Structure formats: C-alpha cells, structure tokens
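Changelog-adjacent note: as of this version, every example in the card shows the full chain rather than a window. The one below runs 381 residues end to end.
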Amino acid sequence: MTMSAPRTFIDIHVLQTVPPSCINRDDTGSPKTATYGGVRRHRVSSQAWKKAARSDFNDRLDIGKIGERTLRVVERIAERMRELDPSLEDPRRDEAATAVLEAAGVKVKIEKKKSEDEGSEQRRTGYLVFLSRAQIDALARIGIDHLNGEKMDKKAAKQAFADENSIDVALFGRMIADAPDLNVDAACQVGHAISVHAATAEFDYFTAVDDNAPTDNVGAGMIGTVEFVSSTLYRYATVDAVRLKENLGSSEAAARAVEAFARSFLLSMPTGKQNTFANRTRPGVVLVEVRQDQPVNLAGAFEDPVRADGGMLPRAAGKLVGQALAEDESFGTSPVRSAILVADPAAEESVAPILSRAERTTLDELVALLATTVSERLELA
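Full-length structure tokens:
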C-alpha cells in the first residue's frame, strides 16, 4: 500500500507599508478599494500580485522553467517548429500548429489581418493559454512529425499539455474551457491585499512646463490630476505543497518552486504608476506557517481597522500574531513549523508573543527553511 505525503500548506502572511502610490487601478484609473469591517480599504487584486511574482521569476529563474500565457500559441508553436526544422515553410507551420492544438481540444480562430497585406491572416485562441516552454517544444515536435507524413496523434497532443509543467503553471494553474482534461489545478492561492486601516484616496494636481515655450509664457504645457493612496497592507498567499508535487512530478521540484515563489511573492510589487510615485517598498513583517490542518487566512485580525496612533505597522503586527495564536488555541490546532521575519524595528515588541513557536529568520533563512521543510514532508510518502 502506497502512503501519501502528509497534508502540507504553506501560509505566507505579510504586512507591508506602501507610500503614496497607485499600484493597481480600476477601470476609472482610481486605486482599487474594498469595504471590509464596515470601512473603505485600499485593495490590490490577487491577479496583480501574481503577475508581479511571475515577472519576478524572469529575473531569478532559468527561462526554461517559466511558462507563457498567450493568445498567440499558434505563432509560438510555429516559431519553435522553424527553430527545430528551418526547412518547413511558414504556411505549413501555421497550419500544423493549428492542427496540433485542435487535436488536443484547443479551438483556434482564423481571422483576416487588418493590414496592408491583403489576404493575410492571424490565428488566435479565444482565451489565454498557459504553457511551459517544454510543452511548447513537445507540441512543435508533434507538428513537425505531422508535416513529415505522420498521422496526427491526439493522445500525444493531449499528453504534451500534461507533461513538464513550468513552475508558474504548477503554482497558478491553467483552465481551458474547451478541453477540461487539459486543466491544471492551481497549487497556490493569493488573497486580495487590503489595508489594515480605513484608507481614502487623494488627488494630486500637477502641471508640466514646456521647455521650449517663450519666456513670457506663464501658462503650463499640461495640467492634470492623478489619484493615489497610501496604506499598510495585509497580504496573504498559501501553497498546497502536495498539489504542487503532483503538478511538477517530484518533491525536489516542489521544494524549489516553494522557495522561488516565497522569495518572489515577498519581494515583488505591481508596477502601476511606479515612475510617478517611486513607491517600491519591502515587507515590514512576514509570518510564515507550515500547516497540516488547512490554510488559514488571518484577515480577520483587521476586521476592526487599525486606528492611527503612531505607526500602523507595529499595531497591525500585534493584531496579526494575536489572531494567529488565538485561532490555534480555540480550534486546538498548531502549525508544523513557524517562522517570522521582522524588518521594522518598531514591530519587535508587537511580535514577541509568537516567538515561543516562531523562529526568527532573515529572508534567505526563511526560504531555505521552507524548501527543507517541504522536501522532508513530501519525502514521507
């Protein structure tokens, strides 16, 4: 009888202060918000921070371990076919790439280009498709075999979607409505970041001067307004290590993925209006807990918003660790392992109650501890 690995959830809780900024906007250009605990909060969507983490992967991981999410899958497969076999002509590559995708169950739309090249066409999927580069290579090889006379193998085309997931596909999942059997269940969930306090957006009225205007011109070359907000955010993400192992195929790969995600999630930031505000900061407090019962979002600590009486982050840190301890005591649970990073000296006293179970770490120590813990637990299977 084969034993399964013990349930292993990595909960990452982050408190981070962001100065005047507009890192994530709604359709009107305003900072995103949410009502929580009866007051308006600053909000940064989960999608925005997942995209920031994925972008950070580009600077930290080998490109072959990172996926691509695109409508232009036909172009990418056809391009890879050309690289693998330069003798193939363009129209044949596009047609073969389309045939491979459709054999796997992915629909492709063929549309006329709106360009000077009359009669030219473009091939797009009707939705973004998330693929690892290894999967693109596998699909390209099937396309080449098809052009060389082999019958299209639908089973092989579907298998190409299943094998060799990239780290980001394994973490964030893939959904293809036309072919549910190609879906990948996400091993990671990211919560919407919310301010721990009530937050109200403000407006900056700005003017710009025309450097080449006449000297007697007292008017501005441009005027406008930009909306911004400042806040201390509670950010949360959780990773199901067992699911991650299933998606990647090995305990070692899952441990490396957890390590990469933890570092990128902590150090990344959405890039909205960054040139206007130079708002990039790092977390003030990070609490990471490895659990075997269930993932636990601690946003409830901030349903009663933190009030301004000195710094927000130290008070938020006290509420965060208090919530973590109180919930485990009430439900009779405890984390398998707990670690805390404190970058804000003002929060030292606030986090003291949790130091009885949480190790003090630096960032490097934290990600190494996570990789080791995940590897040890997954190897128990």
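Structural remarks: The CA atoms of residues 207 and 223 lie 4 Å apart.
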